[in-house]
Write a structure and sequence with these properties.
568 residues; alpha+beta; Substrate Binding Domain Of DNAk, Chain A, domain 1; 14 helices; binds adenosine monophosphate; single chain; Actin, Chain A, domain 4; 4 domains
Length: 568
């Protein structure tokens, strides 16, 4: 059992998180103090002690504390005499322990997220960090993809484009993803590896007149901590008081309004906007071509950030997931998919009733049968039934009955074409029904390649159950008479064709036939004419009579063909 478990890990620059899919829901696991985010800070004590998370972060400024080690991954640089892999492994070990305590089982396999722009070296380093922590890294997942998964955007449908705006503590990334067949592909990324919430904290210090460069490490720690607190308050309220008692003799107390803060960070927001525009330009997309925008990273809780993103892309951002949990939850979902905790069930929608068009003789010609899974596409090439016809009327029908008049009409298209002989015009009719039930009927005159499109919304799929039941039971009740009616119409069309050709053929070739054969033809002709009078008759009687006439005129038909071949 424990072998099957896979956890998802967001190994972030500022904070990290670990999650799983539990009883069908992705969740992040909380540590002993109830926190679902673990600061990515590691403290190495002089006697070999190691502390990770909040306690390490609290020691910031006292030496031996490593933060933002993610920036060093794959660079070969060291932090507190350790490789970035070793430091990251400490964070991963802590997360692993949180999960094991919470799940009461060993955890040995993980999906770990990495920035989309990480190169092979950085990815390799992340993988090694996992191994050093005793984890088999079953997949490295790109952070924007994780964010999109957290919002369930993989269910958006084909070829959707998504933007992920990720503003964390110290880094900014924007990615443009494309969803193809349920998988995301990163089309473009842009960003700034030195831009994030830390800069917002410093902006607040500038506002209160504190110059970080003039402070010692302990003072810096205090100032930054207060600036972050004020920033948090300003995400919720219009003003906050920055207060540092006994700071550098007199202490500081100053009210900061949200408007002042927003003015101070304007240039930072502009930078992120430029990155968004660059990412879009890189793949030749306009903002309106993006179908969903997702926020990730704690700094997107700042209202001015969110407003800016909505302005850049001209649409509301997706709602419902905490921005600092987005990537972790996405990693948990991916882990769930890989471990089988998330089963890939495609919920299929089907057409409740058949869709088709009316063809000659008032018959229903089904293009998409009832119960076909959508999305689907079907089409046929039709030709004109009458010479000199200049327009083909396409009636779009829905229903199970054989005769067009008994089905429901969803719409009509008239396709004009040049007058030509019978059967010479060719009009292609294609039905495509998309996943949301929109039926698009495309007709094309193959002579001119001119298209006409008719869109029919919702009615193609959204039919009340009672109506569907009614239509289906009617079609069953009338199955016999409907079928007979269809056979009759088909036989009548054939009869009309044969009878129309008969007189001229007899004028040309009547003398060639023996008297006996001629009599047979005339008798068969008479039977067909009699049967044609009586529509209430079973269609099979007319059909049999037409077949007889067809046989009787076989010799005539051969002569006509011969004549045509000689080219008279
Ligand atoms: P992350 O790297 O995604 O964990 O983001 C961390 C950054 O988000 C830090 O700079 C935090 O100060 C910032 N942050 C978290 N919560 C808020 C908030 N409510 N308002 C403003 N910034 C926040």
């Amino acid at each position: 059992m424990s072998d099957e478990l896979i956890v998802g890990i967001d190994l972030g620059t500022t904070n990290s998180a670990i999650g799983v899919v539990e009883s069908g829901f992705p969740i992040l696991l909380a540590d002993g103090e109830g926190s679902r985010l673990t600061p990515s800070a590691v403290w190495y004590g002089e006697e070999g002690q190691v502390e990770v998370g909040f306690s390490a972060r609290r020691r910031r400024g006292l030496g031996g504390v490593v933060t933002s080690v993610k920036r060093l991954m794959g660079t070969g640089e060291k932090a507190a005499s350790r490789s970035p892999e070793e430091v990251s492994a400490e964070i991963l070990k802590t997360l692993k322990a949180v999960a094991e305590a919470r799940l009461e089982q060993t955890v040995s396999r993980a999906v770990i997220t990495v920035p989309a722009y990480f190169n092979e070296g950085q990815r390799g380093a992340t993988q090694r960090a996992g191994e050093l922590a005793g984890l088999e890294v079953v997949r490295l997942l790109s952070e924007p993809t994780a964010a999109a998964l957290a919002y369930g955007l993989d269910k958006l449908g084909e070829e959707k484009k998504v933007a992920v705006y990720d503003l964390g503590g110290g880094t900014f990334d924007v990615s443009i993803l494309e969803l193809r067949a349920g998988h995301f592909e990163v089309l473009a990324t842009a960003g700034d590896t030195r831009l994030g919430g830390d800069d917002f904290d410093e902006a607040i210090l500038v506002k209160v007149g504190i110059d970080l460069k003039k402070l010692d490490e302990a003072e810096r720690g205090r100032a930054l901590e207060e600036a972050e607190r004020v920033k948090f308050v300003l995400s919720e309220q219009d003003e906050a008081i920055f207060r540092l008692p006994f700071f550098r003799e007199e202490g500081i107390e100053r009210t900061i309004t949200r408007v002042e803060f927003e003015t101070e960070i304007e240039s930072l927001l502009k930078k992120t906007e430029a990155c968004c525009r660059r990412a879009l330009a890189d793949v030749d997309l306009r903002p309106e071509e993006i179908e969903a925008v997702v926020l990730a990273g704690g700094s997107t809780r700042v209202p001015a950030v969110r407003n800016r993103v909505e302005r850049i892309f001209g649409r509301a951002v997706e709602e419902g997931v905490d921005p600092d949990e987005t990537v972790g939850l996405g990693a948990a979902i991916q882990a769930g998919i890989l471990s089988g905790a998330v089963r890939e069930v495609v919920l299929l929608d089907v057409t409740p009733l058949s869709l088709g068009i009316e063809t000659v003789g008032g018959l229903m010609n089904v293009l998409i049968p009832r119960n076909t899974t959508i999305p689907c596409k079907a089409g046929e090439l039709f030709t004109n039934a009458v010479a000199g016809q200049t327009v083909m009327k396409i009636r779009v029908l829905q229903g199970e009955r054989e005769l067009a008049k008994d089905n429901w009409e969803l719409g009509q298209i008239e396709v004009p074409f040049q007058a030509v002989g019978k059967g010479q015009a060719r009009v292609g009719v294609q039905f495509s029904l998309n996943a949301s039930g929109l039926l698009e009927v495309l007709t094309r005159d193959t002579a001119t390649n001119e298209d006409t499109i008719l869109s029919i919304e919702s009615s193609a799929v959204d039919v009340a159950d009672t109506q569907v039941e009614h239509m289906v039971s009617e079609s069953v009740d009338h199955a016999f008479s409907d079928m007979s009616a269809r056979v009759f119409v088909e036989a009548r069309l054939k009869a009309e064709e044969l009878l129309a050709a008969l007189e001229p053929a007899l004028v040309d070739f009547g003398t060639v036939l023996s008297e006996e054969d001629l009599l047979k033809v005339r008798e068969a002709e008479q039977t067909v004419r009699t049967q044609l009078q009586d529509e209430a008759q079973s269609g099979s009687l007319l059909k049999a009579a037409v077949e007889e006439l067809d046989d009787a005129t076989e010799q005539l038909a051969a002569l006509i063909v011969e004549k045509a071949m000689v080219g008279e």
